[in-house]
UniProtKB/TrEMBL annotation:
A GO CC term assigned to this protein in UniProt: membrane
Protein's name in the database: Malectin-like domain-containing protein
Keyword Signal set for record: yes
Keyword Membrane: yes
Source organism phylogeny: Eukaryota, Viridiplantae, Streptophyta, Embryophyta, Tracheophyta
Membrane-topology annotation of the record: Single-pass membrane protein
UniProt cross-references to InterPro entries, sorted A to Z: Malectin-like_Carb-bd_dom
Domain Malectin-like: start-end pairs: 28-198
Length: 202
């Protein structure tokens, strides 16, 4: 199911966009050249910016041109990390606020090697998930609901084998604190399903 999430992620946040302003939103198109930033997504109206001011490491590239008409704009570029075991984005958030965090990765054979990356993603010191892009031509997206413990949030990509970690987009949305209340910890997406026949997720 995750292989179909990349284009659907636009629809995931469309309901949120329609209900409020973009205050508190972080929408990063990773690897986007600075001179192409910012831009408004044609479907949702969400404003995406380059990730260049949020991380000092890594290199940028673009997916194979054959994917240009298949993927949304935020998945056409990427940042990859050939150096270091752990590379982190440092993002400004509000302590005590609950956030929906989505991280998307599309390999897109950017390096012409046809070797799908495997790597881990951490939120601060805690492991969030393992990414394995094998067989996922359209990439994959991981989501988590996480309460910020300080005014800074680190999202880190950690090398676990011989391939380089990659990232295409980071999307962060503030939530009401009475949304998905838990006694402790964060909530990782298990699955999303349709409630009726529809063009978007509900």
């Amino acid at each position: 199911m995750k292989s179909h999430l990349l284009l659907a992620m636009i629809g995931t946040f469309a309901v949120i966009v329609g209900a409020q302003t973009q205050e508190g939103f972080i929408s990063l198109n990773c690897g986007l050249p600075v001179d192409e930033s910012p831009y408004d997504d044609l479907f949702t109206g969400v404003t995406f910016t380059s990730d260049s001011t949020f991380i000092q490491t890594g290199k940028t590239s673009r997916v194979d041109k054959s994917l240009n008409k298949i993927l949304a704009r935020q998945y056409l570029t990427l940042r990859y990390f050939p150096e270091g075991k752990r590379n982190c984005y440092s993002l400004d958030v509000k302590s005590g606020t609950k956030y929906l965090i989505a991280v998307s990765s599309v390999y897109g054979n950017y390096d012409g090697r046809n070797i799908d990356p495997k790597f881990d993603i951490y939120i601060g010191p805690n492991k969030w998930t393992s990414m394995d892009l094998a067989g996922r031509q359209n990439g994959t997206t991981e989501e988590i609901i996480h309460k910020a413990r300080s005014n800074s949030l680190d999202i880190c990509l950690v090398k676990t084998g011989t391939t380089f970690p990659i990232i295409s987009a980071i999307e962060i949305r503030p939530l009401r604190n009475n949304t998905y209340v838990t006694k402790s910890g964060s909530l990782r997406l298990s699955f999303r399903t349709y409630l009726k026949s529809s063009a978007g997720y509900i």
